[in-house]
Amino acid sequence: MGKLIFILGLVTMALASPFDDSFFNQRNYVETPLGKSIDTATLKLLKEAYNLAEDKNVVSSPLSLMILLSLYNSGAGVQTKEEITRYLGGADFETAYKDLSVRFADLNPEALTVANKVYVASKYNLKDSFTAAAQSYRSEVDKLDFGKKEAAAATINEWANEKTKGNIKDPVKPSMLSEDVAAALFNVIYFKGHWHVPFKAEDTEEKDFHVTKEQVVKKPTMRLTQSLFYAESPELGARLVELPYKERGFRMVIVLPNEIDGLPSVLEKAAEKGLLDEVFKLQPAGSDVELELPKFDIKSKLDFNEILPKLGISKLFEEPALGVVQDQSVVVSKAFQEAFIKVDEEGATAGAFTGLTIMPISLNLTPPRRIPFKVDHPFLYLVLHEDQILFAGTYVSKV
Fold it and tell me: Model confidence at 166, in pLDDT bands (50, 70, 90)?
């Protein structure tokens, strides 16, 4: 029986640029069934990744995995299909993920690259039906001699390096490959966004960050006072704030637990029903938000062989798939993801935002108080395109 490898890569960089008030005219997001299913699947995976991580600083693109699961599903066995369908949240997910892959492929590649690649071993051919499925996801399809491990790894890494503009290097080691590998599926998500809201480098200073109730470290912390979208969630025990990107449709949402040690509880609740309902409760704050946000740079390597069974997906490692490689049954032998995110004030320039909040006249003419949003303890973050979560992560800091 042949082996099949899932390899997924995500790289995202958040940069800063002047605020453009046209953002508020563009902000017409709608919650969709696909967005909701991505939401719940994302938070379930993030919880498991967080629980398994040693330092608890995690970045992942569950969507990257979902796209490959959807593609693999077209050739998978019966029980595997049932597990994937249950996790992805509906019987018609293949059409939805095909459409999403096509739509993302047509977006500005300078902002977002979503790329799929299928390699089949030189001695095999893909089934015609799987080739057609791969092409419908805008996947490139090529042959590769996995037995020549060094050369095969170099070819794969060259593709990953190109698609991530040099930010993910050598994700595939020759030791991962062998002549037993019949095919490999790859997905890369690359995102580079520019803040609408300017962070000035000269305002960044060392501030206390409470890793735990007992442990405090100093972290370079950015500062911003701005009218932002904001919400409070008694159900989660957290507050949320949104940072829009200059690129249309993209935004980052910070979910800050009310308690220093509240992140595990927030993750547990989010894994049950997702976060999208809370994100759609974000509204203009009505006054300036005084935001303090640490700069962070996280790299993660996730072993989906360990995580997927915790999500109810194990049969793809056991049940032969007959619909992928012609005249050959395969199982997935390895599934992993390498990802990183960098959030800082790079590229900030002077900018201004002017907004008018119309309120009923009152005899009390005192300006509305500012809302402090001090991100000084472990938190959760999301980056979305419209209502689809591109990636999610947790930040706990390091000593």
Answer: confident
**What is the Cα–Cα distance from 244 to 28, expressed in whole angstroms?**
13
Instruction: Answer for the pair 191, 13: CB distance below 8 angstroms, yes or no.
Output: yes
Helix/strand/coil for 332: strand
Q: HSE on the CB side for 391, CA within 13 Å?
A: 30
Q: What tokens were used for 341?
A: 């995110």
Distance CA 362, CA 85 (A): 55
Q: What global pTM score does this model have?
A: 0.88
**Residue tagged 């398994």 (tokens):** 52
Strand 289-294 vs strand 296-303: parallel, antiparallel, or unpaired?
unpaired
pLDDT tens column, 221-237: 999 998 899 999 999 99
Q: What is the pLDDT of residue 356?
A: 18
DSSP symbol at 308: G
Q: Which domains does the chain have, with CATH numbers?
A: 2-194+297-343 (3.30.497.10), 198-294+368-395 (2.30.39.10)
What type of residue is 36?
Answer: K
| Distance between CA atoms of residues 128 and 144, nearest Å | 18
